[in-house]
Amino acid sequence: MLRAHRALPVLICAACLLVYCTPCSPDIGQPLDLSQVVYGRIDWLGIQVENATRFPGEWFFAAGTPINESLSRCGRFLVRQTSSNTFTVKFTALSYKNDIPIAFNIAGSVNGKEIVATWQFQGSKRRLGPFRHVVTFVEYDKVLGMLVCSDSTSHRQGYKFAMIWSRERSLPLPILKELEYKLGAYINQGRIRLVDHGNC
Description:
Order of helices and strands: HEEEEEEEEHE
Low-confidence stretches: 1-21
Signal peptide: 1-26
Mean pLDDT: 79
Protein name: Apolipoprotein D
Distance between the termini: 31 Å
Strand order of the largest sheet: 1-2-3-4-5-6-7-8
Number of helices: 2
Keywords: Signal
Organism: Eufriesea mexicana
Shape: globular
CATH topology: Lipocalin
InterPro entries: Calycin (IPR012674)
CATH class: Mainly Beta
Number of domains: 1
């Protein structure tokens, strides 16, 4: 499980330093599986009682690095596959400043390990990005660790932030610590903060 790969981030980071890959290079990531797989048994009423998805479905924003002063509360992602290599995400949360509901629409594409998406604040015509998304760890039924990066241009400075998504509102502390450790190979893990899901 997670503990079996403790040395992997250190090895990847060392390899990246040797071959000059960037912290958000697809070389360090895993492919993103957009397929929705449905399986299971049928109960005595004829209702399917087990199913599974890969990336699509509901995720909770469990932890991450703040872009501004703090992380928004009650973060939730609803992922939908739109084609074999494209997806949309609706991100909803409560603003860290004043608890006002906020929403972003995310449109992305996948080509193996290369994941690129734009983010658009709901109600705005301006699209942010494109941003590179690098999946550093995933167990589709439980958790996903991701880096999001922008490049430097003449108009803005490049930056990166980390996100930990969970299928549940919170993660067990050992799993959270393991993901912080894995992401710490690429970002300052001391900046990772838990997302507040109280009174959501």
